[in-house]
Design brief:
By secondary structure, the chain is an alpha+beta fold. About 35% of the residues lie in helices and about 20% in strands. The structure holds ligand DP6.
Amino acid sequence: MKATAQAHPNIALAKYWGKAPGPANAPAVPSLSVTLAGLTTVTSVELDRSLPADRLTINGRDEDATRVTSLLDRVRREAGETTRARIVTTNDFPTSAGLASSASGFAALAVAARAALGLPFDPTRASDLARRTSASSARSLFGGFVELDAGDGTDRDLPAREVAPAEHLDLRVVVAVTTEAPKDESSTSGMNTTSAHSPYYAAWLEHAPRLYEEVRRALLARDLDALGAAAEASALAMHASAIAAGVVYFRGATVDALAEVRRIRASGTSAYATIDAGPHVKTLVRAADAQAVAARLAAVPGVLRVLVAAPGPGASLVADR
Ligand code: DP6
């Protein structure tokens, strides 16, 4: 009746931006990400017959449970249960760190919810479940390098899967945090505005699968330079399509940090930027270069702090204390 799970955020190297037609929250384009170690969300789900509705607390604060309930309702249907649940989630990293706590959060929730309702541990089933609420979270079920296909307009299962384990590539992600404020516009809203209003959305839909293929090929070949170049191109193409619809996640420090990444690269160190639906810049580097690149980015005016993350494991159940 109670289960606890943990999961880690992921960063897309080939971006998901835009939804396939249909009700199932399937992506319009394939994506490929790396799951990060060291940053952890822990979520427990406890069924409680006295509750009239699901209750969610995140880091000790009561939060709106609408999306959590939509995920739990699917699990309750599968398990033949109606009991409401108390959901307690904690992140050991600040939600403003520029790393999507929603990805680790829904991944951990999917695993904990299935276990609390007596369903077996099954990362693929949990990935499809999480994807229906927030597509990027489907990738956090798995460790290392993970891909998620585009949807085909049907309601079929669409889980993510591992492409290569964490040890496959000697990669580090240097996160340059440019604000402590919560983000201006959610990715769901930003991508929906982009698809409705951007004159470049069609170009993004056409281009993104090619960049995903380049990222995938470079990853399998352990070619960090080709992977980084395709990842940076994917992020910039995604933002170009969004900006053309008036969806601007960049701040001044975002542009300055991006310029610094390009200067680092021009000086001979492999460093490639990626940016999600927020103003922070994440830089892909070799492990041996991570500290030097972190120091360079920390010195950029407007960069508040940096953190360095390595590829890490997928979601798992943890013993209840
Ligand atoms: C820029 O997964 O948050 O991080 O499915 O609407 O919840 P919903 O969107 P979400 O979008 C993530 C967008 C991104 C790119 C990525 O992670 O692939």
